[in-house]
């Protein structure tokens, strides 16, 4: 809430940014490049401490907590691009998601759960992760992040670099994660597809929330459509 | 044309040598894989371990293999300290280059200390079974070479099991392959890196002891080893332990066979020729497989 954050001594990237992610919903952050979308996720996962503002998870104030504590509090981040352990099998990748879980029974239970949620993961359980396609690797990363039964999963541009068919599958899987009860905060360049999957949308520009509301409303707004969802490139600058 | 017995002997010795090289190179691969550190001092630690084995035998009268009980945990601890106190302070941007300078300095310090403690006199362990050998289809195999090979196999096998079956091993592999993602699943990558380094030096302890069984040692011997070992890990694919093992076997065999026509000194060039060939034609290494590290 009301977060200000930045890198090193540079000017703040996020200036008074607030977002709430209710349980069992997908909140999507869209906005132009440099708006601060990735920064939001870095702050939310504990990788970047905010200069001011608060981070509250499940009623507990966790401002300034590092990634280890955020993980323990149930915040899982899936990085942009490829982040599987390429020379380890899908099984090893997914089970490593439960590295902090000491309870073996719980681990097995979660493993069975994610295998059901992501059939691709079950099908390629023994394969080296680096040999899978981009879309399949992303699903392995999703499965890995769900192993600790997180309250919130933070997804940083999950469709980046994927072909249209894989992109469709990825958004379907995001919806399935939401249906299974996890809250999802999704950051996407592919704004239209993301808003189609999301429940709530939030347009970020220059570190501040420009507009937020039900995703369907944002999609329907013609002005937004022009500015952020694929209008003529020259128009985008008008937003600042 | 060399006799069948001589050829067989060279092949067997080459394989035994390759096994030892594989162990010695595995540690180097770990350092580079974990932290992109080029550990020039690895061979110096090898010679240090060899000296400690010699000293145990000479002054305490124990079999050099028993020195492993002390040197392995000692070197493990030294590796952890080295990573935590020195290497972790290097800045990420110039890490690899600075690690060459830093570990070069460490190698010199070790060499100096060895010279100070034991003088430059060449040392050799005199073992009761030191000259024992047995015949195999016309080839003569020294027992100590077989023991050294056995040590290498046990050590590498243990390393493999550790990496594949233990939680620590998985965490180490994850840290090597994608440190950011490793951190995000809750792995303490700094601690793991320290232990990984300790593991690398522990293999140096085993390797050095194996070496001491039938090599004449002197303080500057490490320079003789670092070149071939570096060549092995480049040929095998930087960061790939199986790749290094494969390259080690091949080059060990090559060196042994080339000794017949070329003599010992020239046979060493097989490492450097292989190194140039790798850098010229396949810089990512020959044996790392599809997922080998790229330069």
Can you tell me about this structure?
The complex is a heterodimer of chains A (240) and B (295). Chain A has 240 residues and is of the alpha/beta class. Chain A is built from ten helices and ten strands. Chain B is mainly alpha-helical and 295 residues long. Chain B has a two-stranded antiparallel ribbon. In chain B, a hairpin with a 2-residue loop joins strand 1 (133-136) and strand 2. The longest helix of chain B is centred in the first third of the chain and has 32 residues, at 4-35. The A-B interface holds A 45, 67-68, 71-72, 76-77, 79, 83-88, 92, 95-97, 99-100, 128, 130-131, 144 and B 167, 170-171, 173-174, 177-178, 180-188, 290-291.
Question: What can be said about this structure in brief?
Answer:
Chain A has 240 residues and is of the alpha/beta class. In chain A, 37% of the residues lie in helices and 18% in strands. In chain A, helix 3 (90-96) runs parallel beside helix 6 (134-146) and helix 6 packs parallel to helix 7 (164-179).
